[in-house]
């Protein structure tokens, strides 16, 4: 059986996933694509031998589609997700789940009502071999109790459309999710530090770099350097400090060169390059789950909701520089 | 469609592949297992819900089997491969293709007669992300013309059954194949150096370590340290020296720790651990090729035959310490 | 000419310097040692063929002594330094200059009155090849403007005598000084963050780890992880983030091993081991300055005074968790 | 006391040492310089406030000189060394001791007759912190018995004056000496392998790279890649393989950068840069020995003689490609 995928949203990440389905993923085929830009939908449908849709709901309900793959902009997510739930079709949704925590809550409610998970969220880092190795060494107990985590999230540059808030909403979300994954616990407070010294490479409306400090339930202190115009690469760092020992993401390359550059290892230049294996694996995981008939697994709507709650606190702190608490409701049983 | 796999030979590597089909591989299922040890065949067939066979030919010709996966001992390979060819079923065969080059030649002749490739050989290193990155940087021209390659092939230890000749036939085969892959050219001579100093960890019938020196068609000099009782790990090294720069396999871990051991990265302890991704990928490649209806690709019978010719020269040099030339016939068109 | 050294204080660091004078330093000899513990003074004087003193002032004024080397406890420093100034003898003083900034001010005043520097302070990190390489790359402009510095100061453990305040007064002092050295600017505020999660290896009166956040005049944000019971080693980290690139202290070993520990580099186990070259160099620098007849150079009383001012703010923040400003007077011309 | 140095030979290495005496070395001063090029001698004497000599013997016998520092060309060494011995002045001599083993023998005989060592030879690598750390881990027994050593000796390029033989006589000499130092045993045979593939960066009269294979008394096999037009840096590698574990020279930098070059560590670009600490230390060692009134220590005439014997065998192998044995006479007692 080949899972027939309907893919919504033909922007950068949408096209990247389309290529992935074509080249890498086994057991699935994109049979329908949807974009409000008719020309884009037509062109890509033709290129990939799929049917073009301009209306998401029509595509979702089409019998050409077994599963829905959402790469549209955040504000469109909620309606598309709920439509897919209604159509009884499994959903993969790129992050963020929804722009606000309140909207995410509606999706949670729908899954709770269904009594099972219906969606996999695109927090791809959980499928990254580096982070998985980090989690493995934490879980092994080799490090002892964890006390501190130092993170850095560096982009070579960001487009003009990148707003001040996106440092929290778009960039820090990944660390928020991955810290919860690594430690199996929630974040309970956020504080944003704005260093006075800013890079002149950033557009004037930005504050770059930023330091965000999280505290988890058990008291672990996490600092996250968000530096989205770092110039030199897409560079994700994570160092976990335990009572016995420390573990950290290392360089992510398997070869090194000796040249006029010195003894060097390449640093990724984009999210797509750094997390290519993670993207491949998260999508294959979604497809394999469908094949096996199992309930959705991996990052959930609940993860998306909780991350949105933490972001809300972060945005408040971005304004006033104070520490803001995060109140997280009881986790429903379907997300055990 | 799920490809029905008949797997022959339930030794260590056979069982490893069986687990792999069960846990990792998509699009295939082991439906039949075969071993001359009836008890082993029965027990494993029962565990994996497959049919037990004790006779390879019977299993190969059974309609429970779409494709044949050969993990038996080397001397059994030729007959099983030819039987599968006759049955029109695609073959995956663990290396060596056959114990001698002459036997391999018969398989070549059968594929030439068929006018297409029918077999994928288990030189898994070609699917290793590290070696692939090394090949990519060589092919990019960044290193300039290649002049030297330094390899090391280190095992923590070997069983009592490991013979002196296996350093060539079993261990060096991997470097022989991968050098051909990296450089796109053949090896034309072999010399084996036997250092006077041997590890006391090796059994008395062995000469460990050994240094094997290959020369390729274009004149590249390759040295390969074979050290199969190195005690500390399964450690595969490869450094490629070009006119402009050097590239080398780096540590293969994505995390590092700071502990009482110092700043450390784990070294794999077995072939299975070091090349787990490569094994997964080579098998998935085989299955994907079947699904797509394409001709077999990846390492071929021809590769197995040529490696066997190089090994013959290596074994001669192991005896007399002299340089031995390798005569490689014209490559048939099916292996272009 | 051999400089005759009178060394005061025969504790751990005093004995370490004594051994250094004996084994490494050229152009100087310890001719007199002084300790209020008569037995210790006698024993060591006998071992090193020096004269024993029990009274610092007597030794300072003895004509057996050309220069004074102070390794006594902090509260004793001021009187000994001023006595040496009066005797017209150059002084090397271990840090801290004095326990409080006010006392340090008296020493500053004495040097200002003398119109020249008379003392070298024991901030040995400025002589460390690693930090010097870091300063060189910062000064080269290769990193661009600096915006952030991430430090870690980790000890395997601390003795029972180590107090909560010493995390600031004793440990963080080194980062306070070195940040000023690296950036050529002062620190203007301090905030101490106390993570809720503490290591169980620390004695109950400690808060370990701590995070101290400094801001410099130009707005650089520096965070310093102080973790003095980290168990695994004496590990000093420093990462400097600029607009163009990042530079960091690397592992400080020149060899690496492959063993059952993996691919590993040793981490120092003590301050003495980590900074052995720095200690050797700072002392040789002091002696060479005397030989050359030049004014004292290297870390000064002023550096000691300013670090004491920053520590005062840090201690205040350790109590209330708030950010505290540091007011630094105009630097006198002798410390240009 | 300041040792008055008479330095002979104002070429590249001579001037480098002159600068070293001026900037780094304590306890010595170059009071006389000698070169057959009168203009060079006059200019440099004037610059460094020393007396110019054009005749080595005159300078050696001048009472302006306490110790003789020989940086002249190899063929001049023997006469200058013997003159200094006659004058009763300690000698530092740059390598090679003499161009041929026979000439070296005369120097040995003179020292044997004197009943003590009178000379320190310029094998500076023995003073390199990296090699010293390597020796320390070998001597600790941590690696177990040593069986193999892999070396590489890479220069970015060589001048037109560099001959084919200098790969042995000038470059390999360093590995010959350091292997003896690391293992405390002699080399008993040499074989030179000439790879067919050569770098096009080398001048036509060279064979670059070359592989030289040494065997030591106990049977350790050492291979040395000599690649003197490697383009990218002055890069010295050494990996020591023991029964239990492996140790190797690591990158020799204490900082690393993250930039558009990737994660990189600088590689030295010249011998002077790579071994600057070693040069400083070997010269200070020579001066300190004079100050202490001790017999000369460090690399000896005997080391120079034995290395010359190994080179003779290497040059023979360079011609015929065969393995050549090295016959080493009994070591006289003065070189115990």
From TrEMBL, chains A, B, C, D:
Catalytic reaction list: myo-inositol + NAD(+) = scyllo-inosose + NADH + H(+)
Keywords of the record, alphabetical order, are: NAD, Oxidoreductase
Q: Which residues form the Gfo/Idh/MocA-like oxidoreductase C-terminal domain?
A: 135-322
Cite the EC number. Answer: 1.1.1.18
An example of a Pfam family matching this protein is: GFO_IDH_MocA_C
Q: Specify the superkingdom.
A: Bacteria
Query: Is Oxidoreductase found in the keyword set?
Result: yes
Q: Where is the Gfo/Idh/MocA-like oxidoreductase N-terminal domain?
A: 3-119
Similarity section: Belongs to the Gfo/Idh/MocA family.
Assembly, in brief, is:
Homotetramer.
Functional summary from the UniProt entry: Involved in the oxidation of myo-inositol (MI) to 2-keto-myo-inositol (2KMI or 2-inosose).
Q: What is this protein called?
A: Inositol 2-dehydrogenase
Gene giving rise to this polypeptide: iolG
